Amino acid sequence: LNRKVEAQQLIESSVKLDDGCMARFNLGAFLYDSRQYESAATHFRHALRLCRNAAKNGDEEAMEEADIQVRLANSLRKDARKLPEALALYKEVLKSLKAVVLPENSEKSVIAAHEMQLGAVLAEIGDLLISLDRHLEAIDVIYESMQIRSKNGDNSTRLKSRIDYGNALLYAGRLNEAKDQYEIVLKAAPTYV
Questions:
Q1: pLDDT tens digit string along 171-189?
Q2: CA 26, 31, 37: angle at the middle one, nearest 5?
Q3: What span, in angstroms and rounded, lies between the C-alpha atoms of 15 and 19?
Q4: Full-model pTM
Q5: What is the pLDDT of residue 15?
Q6: Residues 6+ apart with CB under 8 A from 72
Q7: For the chain, first and last CA: distance in Å?
């Protein structure tokens, strides 16, 4: 048996039984993982509507909108014509993440996780801006992402962030600055690929 087809049928059956936010999200995630990006986007959009309604009705089990928006944006990125829409979604997520005020007594790991989520979204925005040939705008966004991810990430994340920043500088024609970033990476990890 084709296990993928069977899995899709089971997920679709669960949607028929309970067409809720989580069921639609799971179907979208499955379709995304199956490289059916357009169908995934359709179900992520539906999940977003369902979760918004559930949250308005006081359902504490409703998923965070930002999680669905990121998955929807990832799906939209697979179609070059939908890059502006994906960018708008990432910017909405960024705005909502920046609006989060963590309690002063939050554990360091909670603060670091939130900041890494912020850094990851900034990296996605920067990458999209490069794809849209908006290189100068990308530099500032990727620099901000690099600062956050360098503070909280592991060594691989820090190196990747610096490479992303170097690439943004390179695409913007700032060759010497890009070279400086690449040299920092090579000094820190000569075998990093």
A1: 999 999 999 999 999 998 8
A2: 125
A3: 5
A4: 0.84
A5: 67
A6: 28, 41, 44, 45, 48, 89
A7: 39
| Burial bucket for residue 165 (CB in 10 Å: 0-12, 13-18, 19+) | buried
DSSP letters for the chain: --HHHHHHHHHHHHHHH---HHHHHHHHHHHHHTT-HHHHHHHHHHHHHHHHHHHHTT-TTPPPHHHHHHHHHHHHTTSGGGHHHHHHHHHHHHHHHHH----TT--HHHHHHHHHHHHHHHHHHHHHHHHTT-HHHHHHHHHHHHHHHHHHS-HHHHHHHHHHHHHHHHHTT-HHHHHHHHHHHHHH-TT--
Question: What are the b/e assignments for 50-59, b being 16+ CB within 10 Å?
Answer: bbeebbeeee
Residue at token pair 């820090």? 158
Residue 132: what pLDDT?
Answer: 93
Q: Select from 99, 96, 94 the least CA-distant residue to 121.
A: 94
Q: What percent of the chain has pLDDT over 90?
A: 60
Asked whether the beta carbons of 76 and 86 are under 8 A apart, the reply is: yes
Residue type, 50: L
List CB contacts of 90: < 8 A, sequence separation 6 or more: 69, 70, 73, 121, 124, 125, 128
Alpha-carbon distance 61 to 22, whole Å? 9
